[in-house]
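SEQUENCE AND FOLD
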Amino acid sequence: MNVECIYICPEAGKSQQYCQKIELVAGYGIVGDRNYGLSRWPGQNLTLIEVEEVESFIREQNIENDLSLTRRNILTRGVRLNELVGKKFNIGDVTLIGVELCEPCSSLGAALDGSALSSKLVVERFLHRGGLRVDVLTSGVIELGATITSLNNE
């Protein structure tokens, strides 16, 4: 269970930027990301998605291998993110709490629709598989390859 890819987006609507590591501040999120310091809703600090879901979608749709296409910040491998809703866990030394599923929205649907899959079908495809919204509980750095560990739900 580890971090496969990391992305940030400094400005809304711009392209995601691939990162080797990111700095997180408790309660604020990723330094340099467009959502840093925003708290319009819980779980706005950071988003995660299972890389296996993204890879599967890419294969199913026979599209360019672009792991940033869901616009999530961290792609994980080997962990069921849905099971982390309401639970504390670490990525490296950073403690996080899973707030809610990051369900697909119409923007994601519109961004990924193509000749074989409409916006509506994209949303349906990622329903309950669109990742996890989390809040950052402790500050620190997350790097590629960092291990994801459960905190026994303290």
Observations:
- The domain at 2-142 is CATH 2.40.33.20 (M1 Pyruvate Kinase; Domain 3).
- The chain has a mean pLDDT of 90.
